[in-house]
Amino acid sequence: MKKKYCIACIAAFCMLTACGKSIVHTPETSEETLPAMAEITEEKPGSVSAAETEAVTAAVSSVQETLAVSQEPPEGAVLTTDNSVEVYEEITLGELLLDSNVQLENGEELVDTSETGTFDVTVSYTYEDKRYVHSISYTVSDTTAPTLLNSGWNVVIERGESFDLNDYVGFADNYDRAPVLTYEGAVDTNTVGNYPLTASVTDASGNVTSWELYAEVVDEIPVPEDNNERLPFEYFTEQYAGENVRFGIDVSTWQGDIDFEAVRNAGCSFVIMRIGHYYDEITMDDCYLKNMEAAKAAGLDVGVYIYTTANTEEKVRENARWIIQQLDGQVLDFPVVFDWESFSNFQKYGMSIHDLNTLFEVFADEMEQNGYSAMLYSSKNFLENFWYDHSEVPVWLAHYTDQTDYAGAYAMWQMSCFGRIDGIAGDVDLNILYTDQAME
Q1: What distance lies between CA 74 and its chain's CA centroid?
Q2: Distance between alpha carbon 135 and the CA centroid of its chain, in Å?
Q3: Which residues constitute the domain of residue 166?
Q4: DSSP SS3 for 166
Q5: pLDDT tens column, 231-290
Q6: Which pairs with CB-CB distance under 8 Å and at least 24 residues apart come from 413-419?
Q7: Which single residue of 108, 118, 278, 402 could bond 308 by disulfide (Cβ 3.0 to 4.6 Å)?
Q8: Which has the closest alpha carbon to 194: 247, 252, 155?
């Protein structure tokens, strides 16, 4: 039977003969089996340069790979794949194979699950002492329903105003950046009353999350009554005193002028302050510079946080680099805190849950590259239902309760936003730092 050779083989042959070499084919160099070797002999006097040798080696390697990839699995080889891989699932090629009797060479290689659909992956293996390389197919699916972040428990509309349920609820999907909100029921905004609704959020894969709520039409929006009990700092420290704990506060322009000497004398040992916030542009907190100077002068340990609504990698890196610029090499006692908490209408930011988790990793990466570390701030609810396990960074937990039941790891607990301390006229957040927890 007349043998056929691929274009890559001919190209390699030409390259070799151009260098004054010839290829002696063994039986393994046919397209039916993996090329094993190319015996190279001199045909003319003179030495071969290192560049020529490297070119020959690369050409032979290319031919070998081309021929190997073109092969089908040999008879008797078993490679049965799992066709129900979940989007963003971390799975190796070896784990993708449900049944196999071959010796995998790249079994620890992670399979790409970043998109839904059907894809090919290259498998390298040996079977009966011969090496094979070919592609197998796998399917990535999304079977996770959208997450309800804000159920709209307080939908109150002033009579005569327009009504859009998106303004009152918040939801997100693990993969889909634009899940669709629909609802059953009608709201007559011209008539005072309570209107029952059944809302649903559907993602691009057809997964659905539904819930019931009421929309209330009123003549006038009521002003919420503040009946929250205030927690004096001295009681706070007495209540939670123990080993491996320190007590502190976090502040911003909302606390106004602060007497940090009085704050320290009250028993506070650290302060985390807002360095700035980002909506459409980055703005420094009005009190940041004087807060930083006065807090350090009072002997308090200091840290900074940024409140941000950035929704792209470019914007997050811009936020991080702005912080680095403002710090200008200043040494902090805490990691720089990433505070993203605009979840009430999260869908308006055009992100998935995966996207925002990735943005935090981008922020942490930018900080690390510039000699700082990062901390994630979030509430118990969103740490449990939104954020991934970023165990490589410390967590600042917000949970306003006497005893938190959050089961994840955290280095600091913000237990109240209604604290009172000497040196501040008004409310302040109270925090417990656990010194036996890693902060890097």
Answers
A1: 41
A2: 30
A3: 147-218
A4: helix
A5: 999 999 999 999 999 999 999 999 999 999 999 999 999 999 999 999 999 999 999 999
A6: 414/250, 414/377, 415/236, 415/240, 416/231, 416/236, 418/228, 418/229, 418/230, 418/231, 419/230, 419/231, 419/232, 419/233, 419/236, 419/249
A7: 278
A8: 155
- Contact between residue 124 and residue 147 where contact means Cβ atoms under 8 Å apart: no
d(CA 67, CA 31): 6
Q: Are residues 333 and 375 in the same domain?
A: yes
Q: Are residues 118 and 89 in the same domain?
A: yes
Distance CA 27, CA 32 (A): 10
* Residue 152 belongs to some domain of the structure: yes
Q: How many domains does the chain divide into?
A: 4
Q: Are residues 185 and 314 in the same domain?
A: no
Residue that is written with structure tokens 């039986």 in the block: 27
The predicted structure's pLDDT at residue 154: 83
Dist. CA 86–CA 172, nearest whole Å: 17
Extract the tokens encoding 346: 């999260």
Within a domain: residue 112?
Answer: yes
Instruction: Say if CB 4 and CB 101 are below 8 A apart.
Output: no
CA-to-CA dists, residue 60 to 39, 44, 46, 129, 178, angstroms: 11, 21, 22, 21, 49
CB-CB contact of 237 with 248 (8 Å): no
Distance of CA 37 to the CA centre of its chain: 46
Count the Cβ atoms, other than its own, within 10 Å of residue 77.
16
Residue 376 domain-assigned?
A: yes
Q: Are 53 and 196 contained in the same domain?
A: no
CATH number at residue 96: 2.60.40
Let me know if residue 298 belongs to a domain: yes
- Classify burial at 99, counting beta carbons within 10 Å of its beta carbon; exposed 0-12, middle 13-18, buried 19 or more: exposed
Render pLDDT for 90-113 as a digit per residue (tens, 0 to 9): 999 999 998 999 999 999 999 999
Residue corresponding to tokens 């070998």: 64
Residues 259 and 381 in one domain: yes
Which CATH number covers residue 212? 2.60.40.10
Q: How many angstroms separate the CA atoms of 120 and 142, rounded?
A: 18
Q: Where are the alpha helices (DSSP H) in 142-287?
A: 233-239, 260-265
Give pLDDT < 70 ranges for the chain: 1-71
Last residue of a domain, one of 124, 141, 158: 141
